[in-house]
Amino acid sequence: MPFQPDHIVHFPTLASIRPPRVTRVVAWLVFFAIAVVVAILILVPWVQTSAGAGQVAALDPEDRVQDVTALVPGRVERWYVRDGDLVKRGDPIAKITDNDPDLLARLAAERAQVLAEIAAAEQAMAVSQIDVGRSAQLLAEGLAARRDYEATQIKVADQRAKLAEARAKLTRVDVTLNRQSAQLVRAPRDGRIQSINAAAGATLVSAGDPLATLAPEAPVRVVELMVDGRDVAIIRPGRPVRLAFEGWPAIQFSGWPSVAQGMFDGRVRSIDPSAQTTGLFRVLVEPMPGKPGWPGAGFVRLGGKVRGWIQGETVSVGYELWRQLNDFPLEFRRPADDAKGPGPDPVVKVKK
């Protein structure tokens, strides 16, 4: 009779059961697998990430797509560009003509008339000032009444008012002429004509109506990521970010950044203080210094979609699974300079 443990001897039925060898092997494998899973959950690190989707944008407002608008009302007489053309700052884009073809000639004639009025008013005021001096001398000699002297002063004031009115009229005419001289719309900066408002050539346009869309060349690019408000508390400027650009093949393991392929590095530049209308917060991401640069502008253009993972603290895999199951926010740790907190509230002394 083979040796059996004492506790099995007291249970004859249990002693008579002999489990197959395969069952014992499977039991040991299951036990070993459970031990390995527990070790992984406790010992393997996991980098927490806050995922967000967004797009490529230009950092400088002047580098963003902008409309070239009409400066004066009228109609488009001629286009100097077409879709896709490269333009330099100051290159003509369109010429606008006024509905009245004789407007410039009439404005020039009106300006000449106003200049004549100014010259006449200046001469009249000079004569009036001479009369004032003459009346003052006669008044001092007792040969003229004070009323005559005061009348000459009033006449000088009237001439000064007429002169000021004529100069104001000249200013208005010059403003109108300057606006009409802006009928040639020019490119505000270097770029490429993305589209032309062809309908503007057949209809009347008003000041401010878009004529063409200009896309600047070689802008300084950033990424706009929209993240959940639950995770925005742990996001701070300088946090590393992993980016996957649309059209660029990539494999991402959010918990193990070193395993990912085809990803690009960035860092948080700024976080908007308030949420968008969708309830998400906008995070600006710039290229990470010292890391490989982002794909060129020919591969990743403005407006291209981007998927990003903002890296947080490193925790265990088990804690991350527990957090995900309970829908808790990411791990929050104060930076070293904020560890002491804001400190106690100041004591306000009240004078009696």
UniProtKB/TrEMBL annotation:
InterPro entries: MFP, RND_pump_MFP. One of its GO terms (molecular function) is transmembrane transporter activity. The keyword Transmembrane applies. The chain crosses the membrane at residues 25-47. Keywords: Membrane, Transmembrane, Transmembrane helix. Residues 333-352 are annotated as: Disordered. SUPFAM superfamilies: HlyD-like secretion proteins (SSF111369). GO terms for cellular component: membrane. Belongs to the membrane fusion protein (MFP) (TC 8.A.1) family. This is RND family efflux transporter MFP subunit.
